[in-house]
Amino acid sequence: MSDSTPAKPVVLDIWCDLECPDCHRALGDVRAVRDRYGDRVEIRLRHFPLEKHKHAYAAAQAAEEAAVQGRDWPYIEALLARTEELAKSGEPVLLDVARGLGLDAEEFDTALIDGRHLLIVDADQAEGKAIGVTGTPTYVIGDERLDGGKSQEGLRERIEEIIDRLLAAQA
């Protein structure tokens, strides 16, 4: 009988602005990493709304409400697919995405009004600034930070190299 315990998943934090076109383009890489590693990698979205995107802060709060309602990644992916529309139309897009996923859009609206998720968004943003995040998407794996806002060229391969190395170190 083996007494080995299962390895803890490698954590991949993605600092993201949900109105950012670069984050939308990075979604394919995120899906590929999820497909390749499954539960060996824990992918966590961290909020880093940029000032230049006027609806990003509300979008981050909406994503937190989606998490409360049990559909965080489906909501995040659906919203990132509509970054251009979000930039033009604002908060109605946040509610429309929620409705499209069968979530309680009235509760989303209330959450945006009462600010119940502000502390989570603010804490993520402060932590991001503290570790040197300046743009989105930024990936943090172990103690390595990769800036996808500058270039996404070869980024997935670099992320996979780091994950493979960290997983091998656990073996």
3D structure, described in words:
The protein has 171 residues and is an alpha+beta fold. 56% of the residues lie in helices and 13% in strands. It has eight helices and four strands. It has helices at residues 21-37, 56-68, 72-80, 83-89, 91-100, 105-114, 118-130, 155-170; strands at 10-16, 41-47, 138-141, 144-147. A four-stranded mixed beta sheet has the order 2-1-3-4. The longest helix has 17 residues, at 21-37. The protein is globular and about 45 Å long. The model has no long low-confidence stretch (mean pLDDT 92).
Essential attributes:
56% helix; 13% strand; four-stranded mixed β-sheet; 171 residues; 8 helices; alpha+beta; 4 strands; single chain
Count of individual beta strands: 4
Radius of gyration (Å): 17 Å
Give the averaged pLDDT, no decimals.
Answer: 92
> What is the count of helical runs?
8
Compose a concise summary of this entry.
The chain has 171 residues and is of the alpha+beta class.
List the helices and strands and how they pair.
Layout: E1 10-16, H1 21-37, E2 41-47, H2 56-68, H3 72-80, H4 83-89, H5 91-100, H6 105-114, H7 118-130, E3 138-141, E4 144-147, H8 155-170
Parallel strand pairs: 1-2
Antiparallel strand pairs: 1-3, 3-4
